[in-house]
Amino acid sequence: MSATISVASARSQRWRLRGTRLRTFAARYSGRKDGMLGLVVLAAFTVLALAPDLFVGPLETATRATAHAFDAPSAQHFFGADDLGRDMLNRTVHGARISMTIGLLATVITLVFGVVVGLVAGYSGGLVDNVLMRVADFFLVLPTFVLALILAPVLIEVVGADAEFLGIRATLLVIVVVIGITSWAATARIIRSQTLSLKQRMFVDRARVVGVGPGRIILRHILPNVVNLIVANAVLTFATAVLTETTLSFIGLGDPFQPSWGQILNGAQSSGAAGLGAWWMIAPPAASVVLVILAFTLMGNALDDLLNPKARTRQ
Amino acid sequence: MSGRYLGQRVLQALGTIVAIVLLNFLLFRLMPGSPERILLRNPNLSPQVVEATRARWGLDKPLLPDQLVAYIGSTVQGDFGYSFKFRGQSVTSVIADRIGPTLLLVGLGELISAIAGIAIGAYAGWRRGGLVDRVGSGASLVLYSMPYFVIGMPLIVIFAAGLGWFPTSGMTSVGGGDRPFPANLIDLARHLALPLATVSLGLIGQYSILMRSAIIETRSEDYITTARAKGLRDGRVLRAHAFPNAMLPMVTLIAINLGYVIGGAITAEIVFSWPGLGTLTITALSARDYPVLQGIFLLVAVSVVLANLAADIIYGILDPRVRG
User: Residue B195: inside a domain, yes or no?
Assistant: First the structure.
């Protein structure tokens, strides 16, 4: 009876401790001007991405276009129109939804895969670690984008471009998977090295001595201690994911029916907008991409300084 | 640098190249029905013709080991098969035609951005918090967040479509390459200016950010304090003591960066219709010309592995602490 009470009180104490730590962290983060700027920009784009219909109505297509081809910015169409007379403001806001959803999904896949491999490799050591890290090295050496370039068309051919899953078309899902396949290795490396040093710590030895299995040790004792790293890494991974998605869509691997910013820029490129001086077909999606990536980079750097044990000792 | 360190790196690079070749082989066979589907698309072919074609291309033999051995054999000899899109041309000749312009663009771009990035970064790091540092670091961060085509498209809008200083696309004007000596070179330079600016701007941010942090790190080293204590002038401490040591990580980054630069150059080439590997990639991609895509992938991937190996070796020579 007394044992259960002490377990319960230990648990509540742990939660209190976590609450305090979170508050300290929030206070320290809000002291970083660059990090806060990134957060504000990101929040603005997240709102747009959550409910694009609310701000600009449904996505304009060739049949639903409301302007004339190549219309310059005006009072009715703040950002002008593209080569098919579709309102650029409308498409850019809808692009936020696609670009950020793809970025988020790709980040989740990258992190889940990278974290699992990193934890397993770091904790098991020996042959398992060796094999997993050789594979990771292979993916680290290969340039993400060039590998994605050859993987994406093959995968699209395998699943078929018109398949759909949870309302997302297969082409976009392939991009998500390709980004995941090509970028998990960096995360795995970071998590592995932290796991290696955590493994030597007393609390892991204690858990092992009282007979806790390896799976539980990884989940309950090591994972909570790498959460900091995962968070800092997630933000930077998101920036890379958005960048890769934009580039892949730009070169024509995106989906014209669910246009991301890269896809919109692909449209501008193939209609020759730049040479015609139609800057309004380029500026809105291009500025959005740069702002979002910049916001993530700023937040990522701030978080990395605050959360990464190695970065903190620098400066 | 010990022989063991060198041997280890060379072995690792070889292993990676083998893995790349295997991946290239398997990926192509992953697609449903390929390569039979492409070779034998006509449904009216008689079974004899189908059999003869399969035998001619070695498709009647098992995937492992026969087809793999044949694939590795021809790959080693530089035979990457035939392009689907450019009929009758081998992948090697298609790629060889396009490699020059890309080398020109990437090589000059690397050179300009490395020099400019190192200069800006070193100065910004040395005078930390000064004007150059604040403006340079801000600009570097923004440039670092821009994909190459996002840099290139506004350049066309402003300098080609707007001001008319440079042509919007291509590598030569019609007949421009046939003009007598200085004229053809000027024509090329005018076409090269904007793509080159794009690649250089895309890289400068990354180089100056790393150089800045490398200089800041060396500033706190003991040998810098010693140099100052000896009474050396500020500029000399930077040039003779801080700079050479801060260059160590730069050497590695520039070599490792090759894959990233080629990836970026692909999109820059598309924006400017530069007749290099990037535009070839897009043509191959839209025509689903897999042999050419594979050839480009193999070429880029192997170059990247070799560049990494070179970086390791150079680092080992420059930094006597590296023993592997």
Answer: yes
